[in-house]
Design goal:
mainly alpha, 5 helices, rod-shaped
C-alpha cells in the first residue's frame, strides 16, 4: 500500500492528524489534533453545562421525580436550548478532518515521489 493512502486512511479513519504524524510531520499533526480536540472539548463542555441545568431543574422538583419527568426535561432542553455554537463547531471539526485527510494524502504523494527518484551514489565508478 502506498504511503499516501496509508496516511490518508489514518487521518480519515483513526483521528485527524495521525496521518501527518505517520509521515513524521509532527508539528502539523499535533496542531490539527489540538484544533479538533478543542472543538470536541467545547461541545462536551456545552453538553455538560446543559446537563447540569437539567439536574438543577430535577432537584427543584424533588417531590415528583420519575423517569418520565427526566425524559421530558431532557427533550425540552434539547429542542429549546440548542446552542448557536454547536453547528459552527461541528463544521469546524469536519473541515479540519477533511483538511487532514487531503493534506496527509498530498504529503504522502510527495514522499512516494521522492522515494522513486533514483539516488546517485557518490562512490560510483562512472562518476570518477
Amino acid at each position: 500500500m502506498k504511503t499516501a493512502l496509508k496516511a490518508a486512511l489514518l487521518s480519515g479513519l483513526a483521528f485527524p492528524g495521525t496521518g501527518q504524524i505517520y509521515l513524521k510531520r509532527y508539528w502539523r499533526g499535533f496542531t490539527i489534533m489540538v484544533f479538533v480536540l478543542s472543538g470536541v472539548g467545547a461541545i462536551v463542555w456545552m453538553a455538560t453545562m446543559r446537563a447540569l441545568a437539567i439536574l438543577k431543574q430535577i432537584q427543584s422538583q424533588l417531590d415528583r421525580v420519575d423517569m418520565n419527568t427526566i425524559t421530558n426535561l431532557a427533550l425540552a432542553s434539547s429542542v429549546n436550548h440548542t446552542s448557536v455554537y454547536y453547528k459552527p463547531i461541528l463544521l469546524f471539526i469536519l473541515c479540519c478532518w477533511i483538511f487532514s485527510v487531503i493534506d496527509a494524502y498530498r504529503a504522502g504523494n510527495a514522499c512516494d515521489r521522492s522515494e522513486k527518484t533514483p539516488k546517485v551514489e557518490e562512490n560510483a565508478p562512472w562518476r570518477k
